[in-house]
Specification:
By secondary structure, the chain is mainly α. The chain contains 30 helices and no strands. Helix 29 packs across helix 30. The longest helix is centred in the N-terminal third of the chain and has 29 residues. The radius of gyration is 27 Å and the shape is globular. The chain starts with a helix and ends with a helix.
């Protein structure tokens, strides 16, 4: 096959992979928002772009609640999705799918550059076709699904998009013999444009230097037979960064990491031990994907509390060390194998190590999967030159693997397109997962609410809520489900669930989602959908606020929320002012709290104080709805003068 024919074969294979991806994922686009989609997108006022003004875009940029930087590029993308398509999940998921396909094209281009760099060692008959096979496998593998159909994970795919662009431009700048100004522009685009955009989409963009180091120290060195000056500089910087990590973590600057474990039911050491097993779990799911292995939540994986508890912990750690040794020792003789292993491990070096995140999420394999997709190409060599049954067997095996990946992904996509089916099947596949049981119960409670004649759904829903509560002593969403279900079906309070919720608020870890329980109760109370009394609500707030593990920031937010309840629902203005005063004691300059205080002054008839406070707030940064409230109150006060 000549050069043009090879390029056409590669392009055709990549196009077929993209079209197959679109077809496989299409049924899943009809699914709903779920889990973190709600706080980050649906309930986030900064996402609701009314126009494309600079101020609206600035508010969207600053609306993030995830990560250290708020992930502003991702937030702006969500805001633009809302501006042009409203809160239709289909539109959000379609953009995610298109972005995934674009990333697949970039993966294909990156694979081509890497394979072409190692053409003398690999002796591939058609580099373009091999790169397209890598990209197609990466596109349709079932472990990628949550990065597409879980809307908030656009943060992952958008960060990957800019990171892949940065890496491609870096490689092109290094490989192409072109005028200096072209090389400089490519480096500037890579490091000064695309890398910052990747970082501001999600913090995983920080891994770019690691991927570049793997390219320079393995692929580039193999291509050039030695390290040039740039490669040696990369080596020295990599060693310096690795050596500086432990002192950084031990210094006061690294305290943010240890403090993050305050909301986790595991320690730093337990997380590191567990993640060794988790990474091997990822490898198993990737090499042999089964429908029942996957789920939105994996909190049913046992925690490692020691090197032999469970016994698989020590072998898992030894296995990862062995992989690292193979990657380093084999970098000259087997550069693609070495690079593939290094890519996978670097891809997990942030979210699967010391950062106090949840233990397991499938989307953490979005970029690392690329390394594993390269391995078959490294092992096959010049497969096109093989004769007879060998060639037929290789082609059949590759086709069967891609077909199997597509089948499992299609089945998952169909599940994710129908919330009730997804939640019930995942609960069957993962009966020991508290969060999966809660999701199954929530879906059944929605069925019961829509069809009051259905007597089975509420019974099954309550069973799932009870299982969620029993499985995790810190988890409280199952108790929320039982209370809401009781209020909705019979207007009665499940006293056992209420007592247990108050106890867990007071004595257990305060998890990330726990504040949403009280805010949900306040919203339901305002809508007349909650049967909890004023004393019940006061008891829950008191239990939460008396927990010694609650941070000052959370206490401030809960005092303010309690004030909202007391003012809007209980109509107790003195109690509301007292609760808000406690919030202001923690954050006296917070503009949102000061605006609420001005509103309470206005309601109490203290117009002068309200006007003074509102005038002071005119120069503060407020959300659009808060700005409308401020302007409306000022107009009312001015009209009354």
């Amino acid at each position: 096959m000549n050069g043009i024919g090879q390029r056409l074969a590669g392009a055709g294979m990549l196009l077929a992979g993209v079209l197959a991806t679109l077809a496989i994922y299409w049924p899943g686009l009809h699914g709903a928002f779920f889990f973190d989609d709600h706080p980050n997108i649906v309930l986030n006022p900064g996402i609701r772009l009314e126009n494309l003004s600079v101020e609206s875009l600035r508010l969207a940029w600053a609306s993030g609640i995830s990560g250290d930087f708020g992930r502003p590029v991702s937030q702006v993308s969500f805001a633009l999705s809302h501006h042009f398509g409203g809160f239709d999940p289909f539109a959000f998921k379609l953009i995610n799918l298109v972005l995934h396909c674009l990333n697949g094209v970039l993966i294909g281009l990156l694979a081509f550059q890497l394979l072409d760099s190692l053409r003398d060692q690999l002796k591939l008959a058609n580099t373009g076709l091999a790169a397209a096979l890598v990209a197609s496998a990466w596109l349709i593998h079932p472990i990628q699904l949550t990065s597409v159909l879980y809307v908030v994970q656009r943060m992952t795919s958008l960060s990957a998009f800019f990171l892949l662009l940065a890496l491609l431009f870096h490689i092109l700048a290094r490989r192409r013999e072109e005028p200096n100004w072209v090389t400089v522009i490519r480096f500037l685009l890579a490091w000064c444009v695309f890398w910052p955009l990747s970082l501001l989409s999600k913090e995983t963009g920080v891994l770019l230097p690691g991927f570049v180091a793997a390219y320079e120290l393995i692929v580039r060195r193999s291509e050039r037979d030695s390290l040039d000056r740039f490669g040696r500089a990369v080596l020295y910087v990599s060693i310096a960064l690795a050596a500086g990590l432990i002192p950084y973590l031990a210094s006061p600057y690294g305290n943010w990491i240890l403090s993050g474990y305050g909301i986790r039911p595991f320690s730093l050491v337990e997380r590191l031990l567990t993640e060794a097993r988790v990474i091997w779990g990822y490898l198993y799911w990737i090499a042999w994907p089964r429908l029942e292995s996957f789920a939105l939540f994996h909190d049913d994986i046992a925690l490692s509390t020691g090197l032999i508890a469970p016994w698989t912990t020590l072998p898992a750690i030894a296995g990862l060390l062995l992989l690292s040794i193979i990657s380093v020792a084999g970098s000259r003789r087997f550069p693609l194998v070495s690079f593939a292993i290094a890519w996978f491990l670097i891809g997990h070096s942030l979210e699967s190590t010391f950062i106090p995140l949840e233990l397991v999420h499938e989307h953490r394999n979005y970029l690392p999967l690329f390394g594993l997709c390269l391995l078959p190409i490294a092992l096959l060599g010049s497969w096109e030159k093989r004769m007879g049954y060998q060639k037929t067997l290789i082609i059949a095996s590759l086709g069967a693997a891609l077909g199997y990946f597509g089948l499992i992904t299609a089945m998952r996509a169909n599940m994710f397109g129908q919330e009730q089916i997804r939640t019930q099947l995942e609960a069957q596949f993962h009966p020991e997962s508290a969060r999966t049981n809660y999701e199954a119960g929530r879906a059944l409670a929605a069925v019961a609410d829509a069809d009051r004649g259905n007597l089975v759904a509420p019974i099954l829903g309550k069973k799932h809520f009870e299982m969620a509560t029993e499985l995790d002593p810190h988890y409280k969403m199952g108790l929320l489900g039982m209370l809401v279900l009781g209020c909705g079906m019979s207007q009665t309070v499940d006293r056992g669930a209420l007592d247990e919720l108050a106890l867990r608020f007071n004595q257990r870890l305060i998890l990330q989602e726990d504040t949403s329980i009280l805010s949900g109760f306040v919203e339901m109370s305002g809508a007349g959908l909650l049967c909890l009394t004023r004393s019940d609500m006061d008891r829950l707030f008191a239990a939460f606020l008396s927990n010694p593990r609650v941070s000052r920031q959370k206490k401030m937010a809960m005092h303010a929320l309690h004030a909202d309840y007391l003012w809007l629902n209980a109509k107790d203005l003195p109690a509301a002012r007292e609760a808000l005063h406690r919030a202001l004691e923690i954050a006296p300059r917070n503009p949102s709290l000061r605006l609420k205080w001005a509103q309470l002054d206005f309601i109490a008839g203290e117009n002068g104080q309200a006007r003074t406070q509102l005038l002071e707030l005119r120069g503060e940064r407020l959300a659009p709805e808060e700005r409308k409230t401020l302007d409306g109150l000022l107009a009312t006060l001015e009209a009354a003068r």
